[in-house]
Design a protein that fits this description.
11 helices, alpha+beta, globular, single chain
Length: about 400
């Protein structure tokens, strides 16, 4: 893997930095709300109209067709400029659904959905987890029965982020209950406006209603919406999760590096109860140094994963290592920020603008669950990276 930046890479960085400085939104994000969803659509539309959408997507599908390293550069510049990246309502469409359709979708599915994703016209949500099938995804029971040229879906999905704003859903259902757990599943494109879908928001400790229960009562989905093959959805779902655990976290990984630098600055100007600057406390200074070292390691792992993806076209199982390390580092940074700020860390009204450190710390607990819990990531690393015997 060649980690040297070419002249083309340096010019790309300069061009991206100049454009972001001139074009980042001046208004703060409205949060999880219809206004927030529109904010995300507008930002994605602006990226699309100015030629910045789908940096690493193939040109034949509307992207820029640039290298994985240039995608990293783009995310570095987003973090540097404090510009929005794909952590809001556009995330699933751009980092899950789009890459999955490119890898596994039909040409008709790609032609219809990919332009709408890149332009911000279509938002997506993920319908994988269920009340009794979160970490154990193969235990899902949401049922799909084939009826002519449709699949009729009945059941429920849990923790469906941004379902109330989504136009489409990547929906994993069980179409053959007689097959073993990892078989008989089907990955579907579900139009969220279809009759029979009921969305019930769930309020979380972060303060918003960004996750939902979704109920399906005889929802008829055209069989042409199957991605992959009927009853072979586990393979398609694993491709989706590979994108989520690998490339899907690039923006967050690189923003984390910027965030730890801001934490060091915070420690250099915040006084503890005894009057010392927080950075003068040996314990705080050592923890910040350790977290920054971890962020450097995460960046190196990101570059290695990008290089592998450029070679193979798909993220590898090492994405689980990155996802695990990112979530652990998120928590560690939130904890040390709480020690630096003291009682001010508790001054939080549920909005990121009121106290971003507290908001990010609460979200660190979400990251340890979303996309597969830390325990699941350790199982993946043990099984698929280290080749250890599977847990009983």
């Amino acid at each position: 893997m060649d980690l040297r930046y070419s002249e083309e890479d340096r010019l790309f960085r300069a061009r991206a930095r100049e454009w972001l400085i001139a074009n980042i939104p001046t208004e703060p994000h409205p949060g999880y709300s219809p206004a927030g969803a529109q904010y995300d659509r507008d930002w994605q539309r602006k990226l699309h109209d100015h030629g910045w959408a789908g940096v690493a997507w193939p040109k034949e599908y509307g992207g820029l067709g640039l290298s994985g390293l240039q995608q990293v550069i783009w995310y570095e510049e987003l973090a540097r400029a404090h510009a929005p990246h794909h952590i809001n309502t556009t995330y699933v469409a751009l980092m899950h659904a789009g890459p999955t359709l490119i890898a596994r979708g039909t040409e008709a599915q790609k032609a219809f959905h990919l332009p709408r994703i890149l332009s911000g016209e279509a938002l997506w949500c993920q319908g994988f987890s269920e009340p009794n099938a979160g970490s154990d995804l193969a235990a899902l029971k949401c049922r799909g029965e084939i009826d002519g040229d449709h699949i009729v879906v009945t059941g429920a999905k849990m923790w469906t982020t941004d379902a109330q704003f989504a136009d489409y859903q990547e929906l994993l259902i069980r179409t053959d209950p007689q097959e073993p757990r990892h078989k008989g599943l089907t990955w579907l494109i579900c139009d969220m406006k279809l009759p029979g879908i009921d969305i019930q928001p769930i309020r979380t400790m972060v303060g918003g209603e960004h996750v939902n229960m979704v109920f399906y009562d005889g929802v008829r989905i055209p069989i042409e919406n199957v991605v992959g093959e009927v009853n072979q959805g586990w393979s398609t779902a694993m491709a989706t999760l590979s994108f989520e655990r690998g490339l899907g976290f690039i923006g967050d990984q690189l923003e984390l590096y910027e965030r730890v630098n801001r934490a060091i600055d915070l420690a250099g100007k915040t006084r503890l109860e005894d009057g010392r600057l927080a950075i003068e406390d040996d314990g705080i200074a050592q923890r910040l140094a350790s977290i920054k070292a971890d962020c450097m390691a995460i960046k190196a792992m990101t570059l290695a994963d990008i290089a592998e993806t450029d070679r193979t076209g798909m993220p590898g199982p090492k994405g689980s290592m990155m996802k695990l390390m990112v979530t652990q580092t998120h928590k560690a940074l939130g904890e040390v920020a709480g020690e630096i700020l003291g009682w001010q860390f508790l001054d939080f009204d549920g909005h990121r603008t009121s106290n971003p450190w507290t908001y990010d710390y609460l979200w660190s607990w979400v990251f340890s669950i979303s996309g597969g819990t830390n325990e699941i990531q350790r199982e993946n690393v043990a099984d698929r990276v280290l080749g250890l015997p599977r847990a009983r």
